[in-house]
Amino acid sequence: MKITPSTSPTNKKGNEFRVQLTVKNNVKQCQEVEITSDDNGFIKYLSGPSTYETCICTISDFFWDIYVPESTYLKASATILPYKNKCPDSDEPLLYGDPYQIYNVTHEINVTP
């Protein structure tokens, strides 16, 4: 699994941003994934949940609109959840690893107004 973050300002003051996280599944099986963003004291979420749970078969994009009064880091994570039942083929065995092991990829995004 690979995650690619990006940010873009959404207002003239430059303190509101749209954060996009692209999650790519690198295996030939759909994966049940939890997408989260770390809620630190400097980030206010303007829209959307800070956590998504979904099935990713190829590539999916997730968005958060945020407000930051000063420079901070947003930590975004994608975690494979092998024990959930969100994918149509979730009864199939995992193609790699322990079915009870949770696999996680995390990326810190610098957000500067």
UniProtKB/TrEMBL annotation:
Gene3D superfamilies: Immunoglobulins (2.60.40.10). InterPro entries: Ig-like_fold, Ig_E-set, PIP. It comes from the Eukaryota. One of its GO terms (molecular function) is aspartic-type endopeptidase activity. One of its GO terms (biological process) is proteolysis. GO terms for cellular component: extracellular space. Coiled coil: none annotated. Belongs to the PIP family. Monomer. Interacts with AZGP1. PANTHER family: PROLACTIN-INDUCED PROTEIN, PROLACTIN-INDUCIBLE PROTEIN/SEMINAL VESICLE ANTIGEN. This is Prolactin-induced protein. It comes from Mus caroli.
